[in-house]
Design brief:
Order of helices and strands: HEEEHEEHEEHEHHEEHEEEHHHEH
Strand content: 15-25%
Helix content: 25-40%
CATH class of the largest domain: Alpha Beta
Structural class: alpha/beta
CATH superfamily of the largest domain: Nitrogenase molybdenum iron protein domain
CATH topology of the largest domain: Rossmann fold
Distance between the termini: 25 Å
Number of helices: 11
Shape: globular
CATH architecture of the largest domain: 3-Layer(aba) Sandwich
Oligomer: single chain
C-alpha cells in the first residue's frame, strides 16, 4: 500500500506502484499522476521567506541537498516555495515560505495536518494535487529556491517530466525521508533552515526540542515497562490491508529505535506488504497503530465491516490507536505523536497474542 494510502500513498504507492508505490513505501518511484496545470493568479507571495534577520545575506550561497546536488546562488535565497512537509519543517525553524504546494486542506475544508503550523493566510498556494503546479502563479512569486522531499529516487510532488520546467524558475533542494528516522530528518531540515538564515539554537527551537526529547523518553520508558508487547502498524482500503515496513517509514523506524517491538512484514514493497482482506490476519500484534489519515483509507468504523479486522486479537482487546502518518517531522508537531504513543503503550496489555 502506498505509504500514504490513497492520497500520496495510494496514489503514490499505488501510484507509487506506479513508481512511487515505492514511494511511500518510497521504495520506489511513484509514477506521478498529475501534470503541470499552468493556471493562473498572479501576485506576490504573502510570506517573506525570511528567517530571523531582515537583512539578506550577501555573497555566494550554497547548499548540497540529499541527492548530492550542490545548489549555488549569488546570495542567500529569501523567497522560498516549499512542498507541505518541508514548508511545515522550515516554518517551525522560523523560515516562512512565500509559496506552498502539496496538501493544504482536507476534504471538509480544514487545514491539513501535513502543513503543521504553517499559517496558510501568510503564504500562497501554487498547487495542492499530486503533481500539480500553477506555473504562472509560481513564476509570479519570484522564488529563489524550491524545497521538496523525496522517498527514494522520487522527488515528491514534482513529476519527473516537469522538473526541468520548475528548475528554469528556481533551483530545487531535496530532503530525503525514506528510511530516515524522525530526529535525523528534523536535524536535516534544521541544517537547511540554518543555511537559509534561521537560528536552530533559538530559545523557541530549543524548548521544542526538549519537549520532543522528553516525549521520546516517555515512549522508551513505556516500552521498557511492557516487555514482550508487539506492535503492528497498518493501513486499510476497501481492496487491501497493508502492513508497514519500519525500515521504510521514518516515524515507524523511530518508534522501533525507542524500544518498541514493531512487527516487520516478510515481503514489503514500497514500504508495505500488501495483503488481501482474507490474509489480513497473517501478522498479529498486541497493539495496532492504524493509519489515521482523514482521506484515502478506511476509518475505524469502516474497518469493522471486515471479519478479519474484527477477529484481530488487538481489535478484540480494544488495543488500536492512531498511526498519525500525516504529521510533519518537526519538534513542535511530533511531540504530540510521541506522547500519544507513550500513553497507548502504557495502557496496552502484553498478553493479547
Amino acid at each position: 500500500m502506498p505509504l500514504f494510502r490513497s492520497t500520496p500513498a495510494i496514489e503514490s504507492a499505488q501510484a507509487a506502484r506506479m513508481d512511487r508505490r515505492r514511494f511511500l513505501a518510497l521504495g520506489g518511484a511513484v509514477a506521478a499522476t498529475g501534470l503541470l496545470a499552468a493556471c493562473g493568479d498572479s501576485g506576490e507571495g504573502k510570506g517573506s521567506g525570511k528567517a530571523g534577520s531582515d537583512k539578506a545575506a550577501t555573497g555566494p550561497w550554497s547548499f548540497t541537498d540529499d541527492r548530492g546536488k550542490k545548489i549555488t546562488l549569488k546570495k542567500r535565497p529569501e523567497r522560498i516555495v516549499a512542498q507541505s512537509h518541508p514548508a511545515a519543517a522550515l516554518w517551525d525553524f522560523g523560515i516562512q515560505p512565500v509559496g506552498i504546494f502539496g496538501p493544504q486542506k482536507t476534504a471538509d475544508g480544514k487545514t491539513s495536518p501535513q502543513v503543521g503550523n504553517v499559517d496558510l493566510s501568510k503564504t500562497t498556494s501554487v498547487g495542492m494535487a499530486f503533481g500539480e503546479f500553477q506555473m504562472e502563479k509560481l513564476i509570479s512569486l519570484k522564488p529563489e529556491l524550491i524545497v521538496t522531499i523525496a522517498y527514494g529516487p522520487m522527488i515528491w510532488y514534482i513529476p519527473e517530466d516537469v522538473i526541468k520546467k520548475i528548475e528554469a524558475v528556481a533551483p530545487i533542494a531535496v530532503i530525503q525521508l525514506m528510511g530516515v528516522a524522525v530526529p535525523d530528518a528534523v536535524k536535516r531540515f534544521g541544517e537547511l533552515a540554518a543555511a537559509l538564515g534561521a537560528d536552530p539554537e533559538s530559545p523557541e527551537v530549543q524548548k521544542a526540542k526538549r519537549e520532543f526529547e522528553t516525549a521520546a523518553a516517555a515512549v522508551t520508558t513505556a516500552a521498557k515497562a511492557k516487555k514482550g508487547l508487539s506492535v503492528a502498524v497498518v493501513s486499510g482500503t476497501k481492496e487491501n490491508f497493508f502492513v508497514a515496513d519500519p525500515a521504510f517509514h521514518g516515524d515507524v523506524k523511530y518508534f522501533q529505535q525507542l524500544g518498541l517491538d514493531i512487527v516487520k512484514p516478510a515481503k514489503p514493497e514500497a514500504g508495505f506488504e500488501s495483503l488481501s482482506w482474507e490474509e489480513a490476519g497473517r501478522y498479529k500484534a498486541d497493539l495496532v497503530l492504524e493509519d489515521a489519515r482523514p482521506e484515502g483509507g478506511l476509518t475505524h468504523q469502516q474497518l469493522g465491516a471486515y471479519p478479519t479486522w474484527k477477529a484481530s486479537p488487538a481489535v478484540k482487546a480494544g488495543q488500536v490507536t492512531d498511526w498519525q502518518t500525516e504529521t510533519p517531522f518537526t519538534y513542535q508537531r511530533f511531540t504530540k505523536v510521541l506522547n500519544d504513543l507513550a500513553g497507548a503503550v502504557t495502557k496496552a496489555r502484553t498478553d493479547v497474542v
